[in-house]
Amino acid sequence: MFNFDMGMITTWILVIIIFTFISIYFAPYMMTFQARIALKQVRKSLNELEKFAQQSKKTALRSLAKYGRLRRDVEPEFNNFLEFFTIEPVRDDPVGVLQRLEHVLDVRKKRFEGVIAQLAPKADSEAAANLEMTLEGAMASYTVFRLVRHLMLLAEKTKSYQLALIIQMQMPFLKEYGKAFLDATKTFVEGKPIGDGIGAMVATRLIDSAPCHEPVEDTVYAETKFDGRKLLIVKAKGPGGRVGKPGELVKRLVERRRVSRIIMIDAALKLEGDMSGQVIEGTGAAIGGPPTEKYKIEEAAVKHKVPLDAIVIKESFKESIRPLNKRLVRAVDVTIERVKRAIRERTKPGDVVIVAGIGNTIGIGHLAKELPKEFPAPPEKEKGEIESVMLPFG
Fold first, then answer.
1. Which terminus in the chain has less CB density within 10 A, N or C?
2. Check: CATH 1.20.140 for 195-370?
3. Where are the domains of the chain?
């Protein structure tokens, strides 16, 4: 049996009451203190993001200045364009929303082309395409910095402790974005193939030396044969930085030819813990970005009852916009074998098969012999490095 001492019970009750009172009284001060620490860390990270944005800007300006105009003349116009924005069409009435979105994106692209022509008048078409990508990288880096600065100042002015803690928790991902966009800007300037172009590289390897046709702007296809099948290989025009309109071209080919199967190849953002360079298969239209091109492929496939195969190569977000490395290049050979096996197993001699290599064609032309021979080794993984950056497949 327990012996209860009324004095001890009273003491414990008093301790609990005092502790509860202290906790209630000092809780707001503790939150304030914690928020101040969080904002201090956020400000330090914001300085890093600002450096990334400034470096991206300087890299882009140096690149533009090589094509006919002095940097001091280019910089004011460049700064004005850094905050260029695109307003998506209204979605309350969904009828025709993708057509309206495509129109807006087409206008946006023409604006970018016009700005590059103005800032770099001596750039040829391929160099201009790379400069467009360089400008996109600088804009993305600057946008990340502005977004974090906005949230931090908002938290300071409103004394919103919750917002301060949310920014602190998201900062590791935001810093990864900022650093990745800086690396991407440098890569675009150099015109090197990036991880996102791995689908286009597979297409070029399959094209080999076949002649290419450009029925759709910035998008080409070549006609080859494999094991008695006729292959129509689709990719964006290279070696400038373009993604083209593969959906429009695939749609036209399906409407004009008796296509038996569509095989799509693209990069896919891997999950944390997945292995980069792993090749996996599925079904559906493997294409990221705005849904306009994906919709065209799906619509054509349904209308003409054409099966859709998807083959994707896993890679991290940073790998997708950094120079293509040896580990991902090895996956190209694996992917080509997967494509050939799919053609042998799922089609018959005499069939027409579309093989679409999706991705940015910077540094990737149309002839296999012109592809780069040397690629950098995969960067060594840092301790605690974030790879997936919380992005969906695309």
1. N
2. no
3. 27-190, 195-370
